[in-house]
Design brief:
alpha+beta, Immunoglobulin-like, 2 domains, three-stranded antiparallel beta sheet, 4 helices, 20% helix
Amino acid sequence: MRTIDFSPLYRSTVGFDRMFSLLDNISQPEPAQTYPPYNIELTGENSYRITMAIAGFGEDDLSIEARENSLTIKGKLQDEDAVEGKEVLFRGIAGRAFERRFQLADHVEVRGASLENGLLHIELVREIPDAMKPRKIAINDDAKVVEAQIEGKTKK
């Protein structure tokens, strides 16, 4: 695999640190994570839902953080075996700590999260500001209006 070294550019530029960091992150792919499994659903024209299967985790074991265009979900089980004095002979239910990151598009906001039946549901909505929405422009015959104003006539 070929890598690109951006360190010479760091020495000769000012204010481009974030851009070079993004390029570094893009050029180094992360290993594929398979735990916990998740779905991303389109629930409406501008609404989405992320559903994660996190059996055994409670609300106190989870942390959900939205920052800029990134959503981070962390889970870490509290050590119940040591507290209750149980001895587990076989552990088949995955209870390992995890951290899952999702990159969010511009104007996507997290609306809420719920935990039910071992599934974590995170609701997302894309709200485009009115200034960025497309708007319809009416076509007028401006040439006749301008001509009438020049001649001193008013058009009714």
